[in-house]
C-alpha cells in the first residue's frame, strides 16, 4: 500500500517495475494514486492491474455532470483535469455558495455556519447523491470509487484508465462519532 | 540478511552513487577552478531532464543520441549564464554573497522558464528499448538500466582521468584551479577557459538529468532535490576535489542504500550525519591530503 503523491508515484512505479515488484504483490494506492496526472505522465508505461483511487476521476461516475465538467475543462485548457483541478473547482463553488448565503464575505463566523452542512452538487457525485460538508468534522462527505488500471485511450495522452469500479457509499465512509471524540481527546 | 539482498542493495547504491558523482563532479570542478559555488547546478540538471523529455518523448529521437544532445543544450545554457552573468561578479568584494544571490536568482528564473516552456504537469521518459527488464542471477534482481548507468559513470570517470592528466586542455583546467593569474601570464585566455569549463561541467550535469529521468519524474522541482545531495557529496570529497567527489558519491550512495534497508526511518538522518561528522573532523574533505589539493 503506497501513499505517494505526484512525481514520487511516477518514480516509484518505474523503479518498482524494474525490480519485478508488481509480479510479487498487489499495488494499492488510494487517495492520490489514481490521479489523472499519473496516467497522463506515464502513458502506456503504466502497468495494468494496479489498484488505485483518487478524489476525482475523469471517467467515473459516468454522469452528465461529470462528462460536462471534464469536456469543458478540456476545451478551456487543452488537457483533461487532474483531481486537484476538480478540487479547486469544488472549493471555489463552496466559497461562492457560502458567501451568497451570508451576503457578507468578511463575516467569518457566519461563513463557518453557512459552510456547515452545505450541500454541493459536484462532478464526482454518483447518481442520486449530493456531496455535503459534515458539521461535526468540517470535512466534505463524498462517495469513493476504487478501480484497477487497464488499457483505455479515451483520455489522451493517458493510455490507461481505471476500470472494474468498486464504489463505497459516503455514509459508510464517515468516521463514527465515538472515534471523532476519541481523536479529539474530549 | 542474505547475500542476494546485500548485492541488490549494493548495486542500487552504486547506481545512486554514479548519478550523484556525475552531478557533483561538475559542481566541484566549477568550485575548484572558478571558486564559484554554482547553486544553480541542479537547475541545469533539470534542464537536461526536460531537454531529454523533449528529444525522446516529443520528437522521438533515439535515447542514446538524446543523452549527449541534452547535455550539450544544458552546457550551452550554462556557458551563456557564466559569460553573461557570473563573469561580472568575479573579484568583487563580498563575491561569495553575490554568488549565492546570483545563482539563486538563476534557480528561480530557470524553474519558471521550464514551467512556461513545458507546462506544470509531470513528464516522464520511459527507459530505452531493451533496458526495461532486469538481469537475474538467481534471487538477485539487477535492473538492466541501472547497469547502463553504472557503465556510463565508469566511462566518464576514466575519460575524465585521461583528459585531466594526459591532455593539454586537462592540464590547463588543473592549472586554472591552482593559479589563474599565472595561467593568464602564460598566454592562456583565462576568461574563455573558465566559460568552457563551466559549460562542460554544466553539460555533464544536464546529461545526468536526462540519464536519470527514466528512473525519476521530470518535474520543476527536480533541480532542488539534486543540489542538496550534490552539496553533501562535494563536502565529503572536499570542495574542488574532483576525485574526492567520486569517493564521496560512493560513500553517500552506499550509506543511503543500506540505511534505507536497515533503518528506514533514519535513512535521511544518516546522510546528513556523515556530512556533519566530516565537517567537524575533516572539513577539507574526507579524501583530501593534509594540504588541500584541487582537481
Can you give me a brief rundown of this structure?
The complex is a heterodimer of chains A (186) and B (295). Chain A is an alpha+beta fold and 186 residues long.
Mind explaining what this structure looks like?
- The complex is a heterodimer of chains A (186) and B (295).
- Chain A is an alpha+beta fold and 186 residues long.
- Chain A has a single domain, classed as Rossmann fold.
- Chain A has 8 helices and 7 strands.
- Chain B is mostly helical and 295 residues long.
- Chain B has one domain.
- Helix content of chain B is 72%, strand content 3%.
- Chain B has 11 helices and 2 strands; from the N terminus they run ααααββααααααα.
- Chain B is globular and about 60 Å long.
- The model of chain B has no long low-confidence stretch (mean pLDDT 88).
- The chains are: A alpha+beta (186), B mainly alpha (295).
- The A-B interface holds A 6-8, 10-11, 14-15, 17-20, 37-38, 40-43, 45, 79, 82 and B 8, 121-124, 126-127, 132-134, 141, 143-146, 214-217, 219, 221.
Strand arrangement, largest sheet of chain A?
Answer: 1-2-6-7
Proportion of helical residues of chain A? 40-55%
The strands making up the biggest β-sheet of chain B line up spatially as 1-2
Structural class of chain B: mainly alpha
SSE topology string of chain B: HHHHEEHHHHHHH
What is the β-strand count of chain B? 2
Give the number of domains of chain B. Answer: 1
**Rounded radius of gyration of chain A (Å):** 18 Å
**CATH class category name of chain A:** Alpha Beta
Largest sheet of chain B: 2 strands, antiparallel
Major interchain interface with per-chain residue totals: A-B, 20 and 21 residues
Helix segment tally of chain A: 8
Q: How many angstroms separate the termini of chain A?
A: 32 Å
N-to-C series of helices and strands of chain A: HHEHEHHHEEEEEHH
